[in-house]
Structures are given as structure tokens and as C-alpha cells.
Amino acid sequence: MTEFQPSIIVHGGAGPIKDDSLAARLDGCRAAALAGWEILRVGGSALDAAEAAVIVLEDNPLFNAGTGSTLNSLGQVEMDAAIMAGDGLRAGAVAAVTGIKNPIALARRVLEDGRHVLIAGEGAALFARAIGFPECAPASLIVASEKQRWDNKHGTVGCVAFDQNGKLAAATSTGGVFNKLPGRVGDSPLIGCGTYASRVGAVSCTGYGEAIIRATLARDAVQLLQGGSEPSEAAGLALANLAELTGSSAGLILIDSRGRVGYARNTTHMPVCYVTLGSDPKTAV
Ligand code: GLY
Q: Under DSSP, is residue 255 helix (H, G, I), strand (E, B) or coil?
């Protein structure tokens, strides 16, 4: 008999979905949540589950992360990712990386390496090479639809998981915002901004990074959990704070220390999927 009932939630990014891809995005979120759930179900860690779920989303060209990432002002892909374990506040992140198929897996290697929390740009490439992490041709991450639809791309991805040992983890990955300057780093790899996990709660955010960074949205949501808010209430209050402080909209997913799932958005869409013990995967937009 396990002490804790696991749970997992993923998001496929907040923002308007202007084409007919909503159903496919929900399918992508479901596949990612189930990949993480398979790990949790057999007693695996929240950290492994969150990483596995985000890899599925990174490999899906519909989402703005990994393959299918949005392009910067030079027409190149530069990606950010972070992963954090709530137990011990261990974190790893990479920023403005190119030529890496799964940035979340490289972020995990930064976490396991333990010397640093965030490695950026060419330094991240050097780190990848030093540990023998596979690289890919940067152009292989650019999909045809992305070239055609530069201005309709959104869909940072994220996952938050709670395992049978009662441990939390959060992971977020993104290609950033359309037409960004080379070297621009968004909220996703910044601990406390787009990604955060502690023993109180774990959070992954999606939205306009420049606003999320200034409001430290993920940490704000965990503070609200600590203050006694229910998960979805905390998510909604954190977004209200963001809107009041910055005038910006966003979305976030979270899980509290009891494994309760919450999410909120004040954008038009945010595909999510969550799984809890004894129930089928549930999706929402
Ligand atoms: N939230 C993703 C970004 O602004 O980079």
C-alpha cells in the first residue's frame, strides 16, 4: 500500500488557438500525461514523470518546444527549459540553446550534475558536449508549418507531477516568443518565474515571459498554496496578481503537497490533461 496517491497535469501552452488544431493539441497533452502517469503508476519519481511528459510534448511539432519551436528574429530556434524537484529544491535549466532535440533532458542533466542551476547559450552546448549529450542539426527542429506561420505560434509546454512518495516536480520547455532577439531568455528556465517546485507545491507557467518574470508567477502561486488557498484558487489568484501587476495574461498548472491538481488561465485557450488515481485522463481547454 502506498502512502500517497500520484497525480500529474500537463499543459500545451496558453494563448489563442486560431487554427483547427485544438483536438490534436488535446491528444498531444493526453499522450504526454499518460507517458508520465505510466512512470508514477509503477512507483517512479515525479521528476522522471515530469521529464518524460515534457519530452513527449517537445517531440510533438504542434507545440512551441523542441521540434516545432517558434523562430527568433534571425529565423532560428533557441529554446529554454527547466526542471525542478520539490524535495530539496534541486533544479536544472538551460536557456537559449540550439541543436538540442530535447532541452528538458539537458536541463535534467544540469540538475543531476549539481554544480549550476542554469546554463545558457554556447555554454549549454559545451556542457552537452562534455557529458556526451546527443546534439542535432538546428534546422531539423524547424517544421514547415512553423516557417509559414511565424505569427500564430504559441504553446510552451509543461508538466507537474506528484509521486507515490509524496514528492513533487515541475518541468517547462519552450521555444520562447515569436521574433525574439537572439539570446532572449523567457520565464520558463527561470526558477520561481515559469517553473517552481518545493514541498508545498509545484508549478509550470505559460504566457508572455517578460511579464511572468517580473511577477515571479510560479513562486507567487506556491506562496498562495502556502497561505492556505486550494490549488485552482491559488492558480486563479496568481493570475489575477499577474494581470494587476503587469496587465498581462497567462496560464499555469500546479499540484499541492497532497497531490491535488489545479490550473487556471486568463487567455482564451490552454490545453491541459491531468490524471489522478482511479480516473481516466481528463482534458480541458
Ligand atoms: N513563456 C514562454 C516565454 O515567454 O518564453
A: strand
| SS3 track for 80-107 | EEEEEECCCCEEEEEEEECCCCCHHHHH
At 266, list the grid cell. 486568463
**How far apart are the CA of 208 and the centre of ligand 1, in A?**
5
Taking the complete model, does pTM exceed 0.85, yes or no? yes
Residues paired with residue 275 on neighbouring β-strands, in sequence order: 8
- The reply to whether ligand 1 has any atom less than 6 angstroms from the CB of 186 is yes
Q: Kindly report which listed range (12-26, 119-133, 178-192) carries the lowest average pLDDT score.
A: 12-26
Atom of ligand 1 nearest to the CA of 176: 5
pLDDT > 80? residue 2:
no
Q: Inter-axis angle of helices 22-41 and 46-58, to 10 degrees?
A: 150
* Distance between Cα 195 and ligand 1 center (Å): 11
* 206 CA: nearest ligand 1 atom: 1
